[in-house]
Design a protein that fits this description.
Layout lengths: L12 H7 L13 E2 L5 E2 L21 E5 L5 E12 L8 E7 L5 E6 L17 H6 L8 E3 L8 E3 L2 H19 L4 E5 L7 H9 L4 E2 L7 H11 L13 E5 L2 H4 L3 H13 L3 E5 L5 H4 L3 E3 L6 H14 L5 H7 L2 H8 L7 H11 L5 H8 L3 H14 L3 E4 L3 H5 L4 H14 L50 H6 L5 E7 L3 H4 L3 H8 L5 E8 L11 E4 L8 E3 L7 E6 L2 H8 L18 H12 L47 H11 L4 H7 L4 H8 L1 E5 L19 E3 L2 E4 L18 E7 L2 E3 L14 H5 L25 E4 L16 H6 L5 E3 L1 H7 L6 E5 L3 E9 L7 E3 L7 E2 L12 E8 L2 E8 L42 E7 L9 E4 H12 L5 H4 L39
Parallel strand pairs: 9-10, 9-15, 11-12, 11-14, 12-13, 15-16, 16-17, 25-29, 26-28, 30-31
Antiparallel strand pairs: 1-2, 3-4, 4-5, 5-6, 7-8, 7-17, 18-19, 19-20, 21-22, 22-23, 23-24, 25-33, 27-28, 27-33, 28-34, 31-32, 32-34
Helix pairs in contact: 3-21, 4-21, 5-16, 9-13, 9-14, 9-16, 13-14, 23-24
The protein binds iron/sulfur cluster (SF4).
Iron/sulfur cluster (SF4) binds next to helix 7.
C-alpha cells in the first residue's frame, strides 16, 4: 500500500511567489468595514455589516438631500422604498428614491439592510431607473392585428386579453388536462409563485431556459450530492478557484465580488480558468488560460496530486464517500476496506498527470502544479465557483462540475468556513400556502424520453420537437424570455412562432419589446423590478436571507394614503405585475370553481384585510359549522405575502413584533430579512432518537417507520414500509445527503444504471471543440462570455449601460490576425455548420491564439424602423426567406432619435453588434441536456459584398444537426432500469406526481424508443 505521507515534490518560482502573499487576517467577530480614517464600524443591519453612507432606515420615510453646509434646505424630500433588483439572479437590494413633491422615482440605489448585497450594487442595479423611464417601453396590452411578425397591433383592454386567453386555457384543461398550455420562463426572479399557479392548473407546463444556461453544472453537482447548485463561502476562503470571469461578471456578481474582494484583502489567493485575459483573470494570483473544454483534465491532475501525496482528508473521504458501493460494483477483486479503496483511487487518477493536463489545456505545467499546491494548502478553506462557462460551453461539460467537486470532496471543504456549500443550506425558500399537488401527467415536449437525466426541460429544442410532430401548443406564454434571440438556431424559432398550426396563441409577458414579442399574438406589459411583487432568496454567502421585491409606488401610495385598486393604478400606463395577473387569469379560467382551480386563488376565510391570511392555517379556509360560508373573495397579494411572511420565514414574525409591525409591514418597510447568519451543514445533523424507533440499516442507509419526509437520503422505501431517515456513520445516525446512498456519490449508480456506466466516476470528456474533433481549418469560437454591464437579452432598455458597452467584435490574437491578414475593425465572415455571420475583428493579446471569441448580449435587431425593439441598442434589419434558407441584412444601425428623453437625441454609437446565436446549430449534451455553446467555425476575410451584421442560415441543416446530436442519447425507453422516465430522486422544477414518472407500456410510441446509441 502506498504511503499516505504527504509528498510535496513541487518547487517553483511561481509557487514561491504565491506563498509570499500575505496570510489571512482572522477577525474574532466576523467581517467589519473600516472607514478611511481606520475607524471600525458596525452597521446596525442584520449581519452587523454594511455601509455608513446610506440613509438611516428611521429616516427613509422623509429623507432629505441637498442641504448646504449651513443646514439650509435646497434639495428634495424623498420617500425611500426598498425593493429587489431584477437585472440578474442575485436579487440585490435597491432603494427607490420617490420624490415627495413630484411622486416620481428619481433614482435607485443600494439597500444597506439587504444581507446579500449590503448596500452595494453593480452598474445594472441603478440602471433600473433607465428601464422604468425607457421611452420605448411597453405601456398597454396589444393584440396582433395582421400576420404574426407583420407588426400590426391593436391596443386592447386587459379584460379583453384576459377573457380570450382564459377561455383558451379553460378549453384545453377541460379537453386535455391542459397539455397544450406552456409557460416558458427565462429569468424566474422569484421563489415559487408561478409554479404554484401551474400546479393549481394541474399542468406539466413549466419550461425554462436552464438548458442554455446551467444544466451542465447542475448535473455535475447533483450526481455527487443530490443538490444542483454551489454556494461558496468566498468571504472566509484562503483559496478561491473561479472557472470563468466570475468575480466581474459571474452568476451572483455583486454579492460574490464584494466577498471575494474582502477575502483577498485578508490574503486569500485567487486562481482563474479563462481562455481570455478577462478583468478577473488579470487580477488573479494565478491565471490558467486553458483550452476550452480541457478544464476537467486540469482539475483531475490536481486531484491526482492530492491523492498521490496524501494531501486529502482521509477521514472525510472514508465517512462520506460511497466508496463501498464503488468497490462492490467495480472492484470485487479487492477487499472491502478503505485502504483497498485508496489504492484503487490512486490507480484511477494516475493517468491524469500534470504533463497530461498541460498537454490538453495548453497551460504551462508549472501553473497547474502551483494550483495543486494552493488547493492542498487551503484544505477546508478552499472555495470555488463553476456555473456557465466551461460547463455550458462543452459537450461533457457537466463533468467539469463533477471534477471540481472532487477537489472539495477530497479536501473536505464542504460545509466549512471558507469552503463549498450546497445552495439549499444557504437559501431560504418559504413554503407556499395551500399548494396543489404536482401535475399527474408528463409533458414529453419539455422532457423528451431521450433525456432522462437532463437538468431540466429541453427548452431550446422546442422548434425541432414541434417540427417532428411530437405535439402542438395552444397557449404559449413567454416571460422574461426571448427565445428567438437568446437561443441558438433562432430562425427555427421564427419558423415555429409563425406557424399557427404549431403554436396557437403566443402571449408575451414583457416590460419591453423583443425579437420574440414581435412574433406574439398578445404583448402584455409587465412591470420592471420596482413595479412588481416577488420573494427571492439567493445563496450569496454563508447566510440565509429572504428579499421582498415590491412595486415601490404602491407602497408609496399606501404610506401617503392614496387609493388604488391594483398595481395598474400605480405603474406607468397600464403596466401590471404578474402576481395579480396570474390570480385574475386563474379566476377567469375557473369562474365558478368547478375545475377546482379557483380555490387556490381565494382569500382564506375570514381574511377581510391585508395580512389577515396570516391567521389561517395553511391558507385553507377554516370550517365553521355554525356560520354560512362567506362568498369567496379573490386572493390579494397582501393575503399571499402576509401568509408567507407569517408562516414561512423563521424569526421574521418575532422581529416584526419587536417593532410593532406585522411581518408583511416589516418586509414592506425594510425589504429583506436575514433568517440566519450561521447556517448549518445539514449532512451532519444528528437524527433524533425518537425518529429511530424500530430502525434498520441497509448498505449504510438507516430506515425507520417515522421517516420519509424532509432532508436525508433519497433511497426507495423498504418493502416493509420503512423509509430512509439518515445514514450510519461510525455508529451515529446523521442526516447525510439527498442521494440514494445518503453519501456523496463519487461513484454514481444512477449514471451506471441509466446507460452511462463509463461516466459513473468524475472523469474527463473531450469537448466537441477539442482539437482532435475540429475539421481542417476550423477553430473554436467562444460565444458565451459576458460583460459586467449588460444583462443577457433585456438590458437594451438601459441607456447608461448601452453607452458603456454596445457591440461584440470578434476577439482574435495578433498571431491569428496576422495569418489571416486582418486588423482591428476589418470585417470577417464566420462560418458555422448551418450558416455564417459577418462582424468586425478586435485584435488583442488577451485571448489564446488558437481560439476566437465573441461576447454575449449584443446583435439585437428589429424589423420596424419605428419600434419593436429598443432604438438605442437594436439595428433595423431585413429578413428574407426562401424555403429553409434565411438571411438577415442590416438596413441601418442605431441612430439618435427624438423622444421624451433628450438623451435619445445624443446617441453617438451606431454599431450594436451581430446576432451570432441565430447562426448556431443546437448542441444538446446527451446526458445533461445542456446546449454546448462553443462552436467549431471557420474564419475568413469578409467576401466581396459581405456587410457588417449579415447573417445567413439554412434551417434544414439546423434540423439535420439536431438529429445528429439526438442520436447520441440513451433514451429512457431503452435504458431505464425500472420503466420510469427519470430517476425519481433527481429534481425537477415543478415535480409531477409519482404516477407521471411511469413510462408507457412497452411497445407504445415513446420518444427515443428507436433512436439513440449511435
Ligand atoms: S449583481 Fe447587479 S444586476 Fe445583479 S441583482 Fe445585484 S445589482 Fe442587480
Amino acid at each position: 500500500m502506498p504511503s499516505r505521507e504527504r509528498k510535496n515534490t513541487i518547487g517553483s518560482h511561481l509557487l514561491e511567489a504565491l506563498r509570499s502573499r500575505p496570510r489571512r487576517i482572522v477577525s474574532d467577530a466576523g467581517p467589519r468595514y473600516a472607514s478611511p480614517d481606520g475607524h471600525r464600524t458596525r452597521f446596525p443591519g442584520p449581519s452587523e455589516i454594511g455601509l455608513d453612507s446610506h440613509p438611516p432606515s428611521e429616516q427613509w420615510g422623509d429623507w432629505r438631500e441637498g442641504r448646504s453646509a449651513d443646514g439650509r434646505e435646497h434639495g428634495r424630500r424623498f420617500d425611500l422604498v426598498p425593493t429587489l433588483c431584477f437585472n440578474c439572479e442575485s436579487a440585490c437590494g435597491l432603494l427607490a428614491y420617490i420624490d415627495h413633491d413630484t411622486g416620481a422615482v428619481r433614482k435607485l440605489e443600494g439597500n444597506p439592510l439587504h444581507p446579500g448585497s449590503r448596500g452595494r450594487n453593480c452598474a445594472k442595479g441603478p440602471a433600473t431607473h433607465n428601464q422604468i423611464t425607457d421611452p420605448d417601453r411597453l405601456l398597454y396590452p396589444l393584440r396582433r392585428a395582421g400576420a404574426r411578425g407583420a407588426g400590426e397591433w391593436t391596443r386592447v383592454s386587459w379584460d379583453e386579453a384576459l377573457d380570450d386567453i382564459a377561455a383558451r386555457i379553460r378549453a384545453d384543461i377541460v379537453a386535455t388536462q391542459g397539455r397544450h398550455v406552456v409557460y416558458h420562463v427565462g429569468r424566474p426572479g422569484e421563489d415559487g409563485f408561478t409554479s404554484r399557479v401551474l400546479q393549481a392548473w394541474g399542468i406539466d407546463g413549466h419550461n425554462s431556459h436552464t438548458n442554455i444556461c446551467s444544466s451542465s453544472a447542475r448535473a455535475g453537482y447533483a450526481f455527487w450530492m443530490g443538490i444542483d447548485r454551489p454556494s461558496p463561502d468566498f468571504a472566509e476562503a484562503d483559496v478561491i478557484l473561479l472557472l470563468s470571469a466570475h468575480l466581474e461578471t459571474g452568476h451572483y456578481f455583486n454579492p460574490h465580488a464584494q466577498r471575494i474582494v474582502e477575502a483577498r484583502a485578508r490574503g486569500c489567493q485567487v486562481a482563474v480558468f479563462d481562455p481570455r485575459l478577462s478583468n478577473t483573470a488579470s487580477g488573479a494570483d494565478l491565471w490558467l488560460p486553458s483550452y476550452p473544454g480541457s478544464e476537467a483534465a486540469v482539475l483531475l491532475a490536481v486531484a491526482g496530486h492530492l491523492i498521490r501525496t496524501g494531501a486529502y482528508d482521509r477521514d472525510f473521504v472514508r465517512r462520506w464517500w460511497n466508496w463501498e458501493a464503488y468497490l462492490r460494483a467495480e472492484r470485487p477483486d479487492l477487499p472491502a476496506t478503505f485502504g483497498a479503496f485508496e489504492e484503487a483511487l490512486e490507480e484511477l487518477y494516475a493517468e491524469y498527470t500534470f504533463a497530461f493536463a498541460a498537454e490538453e489545456s495548453g497551460v504551462p505545467q508549472e501553473r497547474i502544479e502551483a494550483l495543486a499546491e494552493m488547493v492542498a494548502r487551503a484544505g477546508t478553506r478552499f472555495s470555488s465557483y463553476n456555473w456557465r462557462s466551461a460547463g455550458a460551453g462543452n459537450e461533457g461539460g457537466w463533468q467539469v462540475a463533477r471534477c471540481l467537486m472532487l477537489l472539495h470532496a477530497l479536501t473536505g471543504s464542504i460545509g466549512t468556513k471558507g469552503g463549498f456549500w450546497p445552495n439549499t443550506w444557504t437559501k431560504h425558500v418559504a413554503p407556499q400556502p395551500h399548494p396543489a399537488p404536482g401535475p399527474s401527467w408528463w409533458q414529453d415536449l419539455h422532457m423528451p424520453g431521450e433525456y432522462p437525466l437532463a437538468f431540466f426541460e429541453m427548452s431550446y429544442l422546442l422548434p425541432h420537437l414541434l417540427k417532428e410532430g411530437r405535439g402542438t401548443i395552444d397557449v404559449y406564454f413567454t416571460r422574461v424570455y426571448n427565445p428567438v434571440w437568446t437561443n441558438p438556431d433562432g430562425f427555427s424559432w421564427l419558423e415555429a412562432l409563425t406557424d399557427e398550426s404549431k403554436i396557437g396563441c403566443h402571449v408575451a409577458l414583457t416590460p419591453t419589446w423583443s425579437e420574440s414579442a414581435w412574433f406574439a399574438d398578445y404583448v402584455l406589459p409587465m412591470g420592471h423590478s420596482s413595479e412588481r411583487h416577488d420573494v427571492q432568496s439567493q445563496e450569496t454567502g454563508r447566510a440565509q436571507w429572504i428579499g421582498f421585491r415590491q412595486p415601490v409606488m404602491r407602497t408609496h401610495f399606501e404610506r401617503t394614503g392614496r387609493p388604488f385598486r391594483d398595481t395598474r393604478d400605480v405603474n406607468p400606463g397600464e403596466v401590471w405585475e404578474e402576481n395579480e395577473f396570474w390570480i385574475e387569469l386563474s379566476w377567469r379560467i375557473d369562474p365558478d370553481g368547478s375545475l377546482g382551480i379557483r380555490r387556490y386563488f381565494e382569500a382564506p376565510a375570514g381574511a377581510g384585510s391585508p395580512g389577515a391570511a396570516a391567521s389561517t392555517a395553511g391558507g385553507r379556509p377554516q370550517a365553521d359549522a355554525t356560520a354560512q360560508p362567506p362568498a369567496p373573495r379573490k386572493m390579494t397579494v397582501d393575503d399571499y405575502y402576509g401568509y408567507l411572511f407569517e408562516h414561512g420565514v423563521p424569526g421574521l414574525p418575532a422581529a416584526a413584533a419587536r417593532e410593532g409591525l406585522t411581518p408583511l409591514a416589516y418586509m414592506r418597510r425594510y425589504g429583506s430579512f436575514e433568517v440566519t447568519a450561521e447556517p448549518v451543514a445539514r449532512y451532519l445533523e444528528e437524527v433524533p432518537q425518537e425518529q429511530l424507533v424500530d430502525a434498520v440499516t441497509r448498505d449504510g442507509v438507516v430506515y425507520a417507520r417515522s421517516g420519509g419526509a424532509g432532508y436525508g437520503p433519497k433511497a426507495d422505501r423498504l418493502a416493509d414500509g420503512r423509509s430512509p431517515v439518515g445514514v450510519d456513520v461510525d455508529g451515529r445516525v446523521l442526516r447525510g445527503w439527498p442521494t440514494p446512498s445518503g453519501r456523496l456519490e463519487f461513484y454514481s449508480p444512477t449514471l451506471r444504471d441509466w446507460g452511462w456506466p463509463e461516466y459513473a466516476l468524475p472523469t474527463y470528456i473531450r469537448s466537441h471543440v477539442h482539437r482532435s474533433r475540429l475539421a481542417p481549418g476550423e477553430v473554436a469560437l467562444l460565444p458565451n462570455f459576458r460583460l459586467p454591464v449588460q444583462i443577457h437579452t433585456r438590458s437594451a432598455n438601459s441607456k447608461w449601460l448601452d453607452e458603456i458597452a454596445h457591440t461584440n467584435p470578434l476577439w482574435m490574437h495578433p498571431q491569428r490576425a496576422a495569418a489571416l491578414g486582418v486588423r482591428t475593425g476589418d470585417l470577417v465572415r464566420v462560418t458555422t455548420h448551418i450558416g455564417h455571420f459577418v462582424l468586425p475583428v478586435w485584435v488583442t493579446e488577451a485571448i489564446r491564439p488558437d481560439i476566437v471569441a465573441c461576447s454575449h448580449h449584443f446583435g439585437r435587431w428589429r424589423t420596424d424602423d419605428a419600434g419593436g425593439g429598443n432604438r438605442g441598442l437594436s439595428s433595423v434589419v431585413g429578413l428574407e426567406r426562401e424555403g429553409a434558407r434565411w438571411s438577415m441584412t442590416r438596413k441601418h444601425g442605431v441612430r439618435p432619435y427624438a423622444s421624451n428623453d433628450p438623451d435619445t437625441g445624443r446617441i453617438w454609437w451606431s454599431d450594436v453588434g451581430v446576432h451570432q446565436n441565430i447562426a448556431f446549430e443546437v448542441h444538446p449534451d446527451p446526458v445533461s441536456g445542456q446546449h454546448c455553446w462553443h462552436q467549431a467555425v471557420t474564419v475568413e476575410y469578409a467576401r466581396e459584398g459581405d456587410r457588417n451584421g449579415d447573417i445567413a442560415v439554412d434551417t434544414d441543416k439546423a434540423h439535420a444537426s439536431y438529429r445528429e446530436w439526438m442520436a447520441k442519447t440513451r433514451p429512457a425507453a431503452r435504458h431505464s432500469p425500472d420503466r420510469t422516465r427519470r430517476p425519481r430522486w433527481l429534481p425537477r422544477p415543478l415535480d409531477p406526481q409519482d404516477g407521471a414518472y411511469a413510462l408507457p407500456a412497452e411497445g407504445a410510441d415513446v420518444a427515443g424508443a428507436t433512436d439513440g446509441d449511435a
